[in-house]
Design a protein that fits this description.
5 helices, Immunoglobulin-like, disordered N terminus, Beta-galactosidase, Chain A, domain 5, 18-stranded mixed beta sheet, 10-stranded antiparallel beta sheet, mainly beta, single chain
Length: 521
Amino acid sequence: MTVSRRDVVTGLLSGGVLALGADAAATAGAGRGIRLGPARPFSDQALDALARDLAGRPFRARPSPWTGTLATLDFDALEAIRFRPEAALWPGDARIGAVEFFHLGKYARTPVTLHEVEGGMAREVLYARSLFDIPQGNPARRLPGDLGFAGFRVMNPGASGDWIAYLGASYFRAADPFNQYGLSARGLAIDTATAGPEEFPAFTAFWLERGPEGLVVHALLEGPSVAGAYRIEHRRGPAGLVQTIGARLYFRRAVQRLGLAPLTSMFWYGPADRTRASDWRPQVHDSDGLSVWTGVGERIWRPLGNPPRVVTNALQDSGPKGFGLMQRDRAFADYQDDGAFYERRPSAWVEPLEGGREDAWGLGSVQLVEIPTDTETDDNIVAFWTPLRPVEAGDRLSFSYRLHWAAREPIPLGVAQVVATWVGRAGRPGQPPTPGARKYVVDFEGGRLAALTRRDAVTPVITVSAGEATPAAAYPVVGTGRWRLMFDIATPPGSTIDIRAFLRLGGESLTETWLGQAFGG
């Protein structure tokens, strides 16, 4: 008898392989328009045991036999397919919302297994073509009746639109707090921006449960290098969505670069550098900077860029308090896009939690990867935490964190923040530009700055990896509460110069630390 991966999943969770025909085992979803498989015991401990067992076996990819037809289901064809709302899981749920399912297509061709969990028992949600409205002539009509789902989303109770979606590999994203999607998160990143190919482990099975504080998603992660068990709790509030995420990972083989709590976003261009702009809009990006709160309490802001080549930066740290990709610019006038509404894109902040392997959030680095792009359709920004200790075959790792989907960092900075960065030709306005150099202008706002004047001894502190920053000046911007830092950097051909800058009064840091990079032509 041939045992499928689905048999392995359900069998291990129930203590043995049980092969039942879907039609014979199905039970009606109590008027919900869906069919559910037989009830089987479920627990986090059983999911952890399943991941550990799978990691002890060779990885087996599970490509769909219908990839050719699925490749024809492009964006337009998928948009034409509609999930029937009456077929949702938990329809009319006024607390969490109804769960709808995604159809497989060109960009998500591997089916995932979905279950409902209630009272410690799990039932598989059975695929049926009747759950979808598929227009005549759509390629999806050529697909079989046991195709499977690509993922799921949860609808806003009593309102239009969805607030959370899990779709493709280990990707998920939230629309809170502005009811607008933007950047994405992932369960895990493996070998991102290394010499070899990046590995994309995938959530292959989900168990959905209505917990006391909101939705609970249990997920099985599988990939060539790793198998893992995830528990993701969701709590929505006025400030946005907070996910509490716990993971237990079991590694089949060594990993060159492990990325925990990875975030993926898009940055095409902004005011700091419009050399890549070929569009009429002033700015186009889902996030405009990386924010870091180090273990020693330093607040750091690194504006995102669209570099001429792939650039990876590592911010070494121990016991980080948090990091995230932020969208700080919330002014519509700075984007002028009344369709994409980039000013409403959420920020995502990672708050590490204690527990798990000793050094998971101990010694390591926040990694930022920036990839060149000439379009707004590429996710060219990645940020994640990499533990210092290398991952070897047979290793086990547990870690947990809170992921805040919010307008900005959930914890006040305590110092003035960067509110704008500009880069342009070096030299004095009205005079010939200084060859082989760039001018950097950084505006800070908040904290004690508004109460200070030119008579106060506010000092710019600028550190560069090569050369020097000249001339450097810091002064209040007339008519605002801002202070402006301005300096020039020589950029020899082929050079990459790292820059750190902040404002100080005596021995006190008044601002977060601004990080930048200058590239020689």
